[in-house]
């Protein structure tokens, strides 16, 4: 998206210093500066202002600042994060293509990736990178939308009540998706009702001619439907877009018959896990809501590629099968990953290396024990990484996981699962063991 330094100063009520510049693109990461872009230095654990010189040297056309301006074109503002949000809201008014907003406790990124694949059958899609789903990532997604885009797909996350409302006031989606509502971040939200109400905030910003895509299998989602006058399209086993005759190949990739108000279609996914069926139905519902033919939706789902660290099934040392699902974890996604491990057609050992599930509040201990019991019921051995919350399983340090695996003398008939909240850093171990 193209704009001028003068326009930026006007939107942010900032002070323009230096010559006028035409700007294309925005980043908060000096390592991702491209010639002609706007650099936004944010203040957190590191102060982005320390990287302004680097950004200029790499070709940034202008930069925001809370400090005394340096050389080049700058816009001085009271708070760079606030200014970024203001720019995101302003950018939305220049976007005249269908906008899809996706929220939910789990599955947001996978549904975003699948929706991207589906809508790509009809035109160019600009979607959130990775999990750019917060007050920083969402405005960056809007500001970097190419003018030639036919669709915009925005992932929207929440850490507290009101977050989705705030992001929705920036995104103003035409189609709003709620993937599911489960207990995650309960340390912050406090209750499932609070989580449900927060996710439902997206519906209040839908236009009456828009569409709410809702998981019919989750009561906490369906009861939010009264918050919008937009039409509703449901997915799931109880939904209008649903799956039957679900089967899995040796890599846990599902195939199924998708039944919709527009007809039936045979779907074959190239991503692993039973829970991916629901994600695919959500993405299909979005495509159908935009008017895509069922054939195009089917083709799009066959071309899905997920973001990294999500149900990646790879080959480890000695031919071991490895499930790398290390991006994040909560009780629901943890049990889904364990279910996937249990379904692998391996007749040797199945071992889950599980780390902390963060931000569960008073339910932390109970949730970890429940996950361990779920694994044990399926005959899966649990080894805890950097936490004693799972109870009696053996606990190993992150640095000793590799030695632990080497001592097991595993082979091609064995399978490993690695999953934890991102703060654990378990993905670093997986990098060392895959071929």
Strand content: 15-25%
Summing up helix and strand content along with how strands pair, one would put the structural category as alpha/beta
Going across the biggest sheet, name each strand in turn. Answer: 9-10-8-11-12-13
Number of beta strands:
22
Mean pLDDT: 96
Given as residue ranges, the uncertain stretches (5+ residues, pLDDT < 50) are none
- Percent helix, as a range, is 25-40%
Which overall shape is indicated by the principal axes computed on the Cα atoms? globular
Superfamily at the CATH H level of the largest domain? Answer: Mur-like, catalytic domain
Largest sheet: 6 strands, parallel
Work out the radius of gyration.
23 Å
What separation lies between the terminal Cα atoms? 40 Å
Helix count?
A: 15
Structurally, the number of domains stands at: 3
Question: Which fold name corresponds to the CATH topology of the largest domain?
Answer: UDP-N-acetylmuramoyl-L-alanine:D-glutamate ligase
CATH architecture of the largest domain: 3-Layer(aba) Sandwich
CATH class category label of the largest domain? Alpha Beta
GO biological process, one term: cell wall organization
Pfam families: Mur_ligase_C, Mur_ligase_M
Domain Mur ligase central: 102-286
Organism: marine metagenome
